[in-house]
Specification:
about 200 residues; alpha/beta; seven-stranded mixed sheet; two-stranded antiparallel ribbon; 6 helices; about 30% strand; globular
Length: about 200
């Protein structure tokens, strides 16, 4: 699932995602004071745009330039500005302590990257800031093939709860649970539950 994989996916579909912000993001972040946000794996930009509309200064990062182009166009249509970052995270880590919010929504973190990849993303959170990680409930299984025929095994990816062991001291874990999806899964998508991890870095 490298840059070529994602660029091909976007080039072969007029729209990949729903265009609506992640319901968990809306629930978990609505009460926070806006600051600097990093949206990792921004896709077509729905989450990043929603954050910008709430007053956040958003860096929207993605491995796919095709995705970033779509996110930029969508943001302009909504009258907000995103800082676009073409980056392969976490292989190329974000700057440390640079963001008041680091959000990952359904971002595939392969276990082959090792736990250091989790720590690199968490280190981007500034003191007092928030780390939010949302994923499908991997316990539901649902291995499948990617658009290029590649086998995608859910067990090969980190779950949000894996961040709990990677953070170490200096954090307060606020949410670490599995819950029903805020909104129904898209047609043909079997996932009925999300796993949610939210932590705050100490000042």
């Amino acid at each position: 699932m490298d840059e070529t994989y994602w660029d091909t996916l976007y080039r072969t579909r007029d729209q990949v995602w729903s265009g609506a912000p992640n319901g968990v993001l809306v629930v978990e972040i609505s009460g926070l004071a806006p600051g600097r946000a990093l949206e990792v794996g921004c896709g077509e930009g729905a989450d990043a745009i929603w954050l910008a509309e709430q007053g956040w200064r958003v860096t929207a990062a993605d491995i796919s330039q095709e995705a970033l182009t779509r996110a930029d166009n969508a943001a302009r249509a909504c009258g907000v500005t995103l800082t676009l970052l073409h980056s392969d995270m976490p292989a190329t880590p974000p700057p440390p302590a640079a963001f008041d919010l680091v959000a990952l929504s359904y971002f595939p973190l392969h276990r082959a990257l090792g736990p250091a990849s989790l720590r690199a993303l968490a280190e981007a959170v500034a003191p007092g800031g928030t780390l939010l990680v949302v994923s499908h409930d991997l316990a539901e299984g649902h291995d499948h093939q990617g658009h290029d025929g590649t086998e995608i095994r859910m067990a090969d990816f980190y779950a949000p709860a894996d961040f709990a062991e990677a953070l170490g001291e200096g954090w307060t874990i606020l949410v670490n649970e599995t819950r029903p999806r805020v909104s129904p899964a898209p047609p043909g998508t079997p996932h009925t539950h999300d796993t949610v991890f939210r932590a705050q870095r100490h000042s």
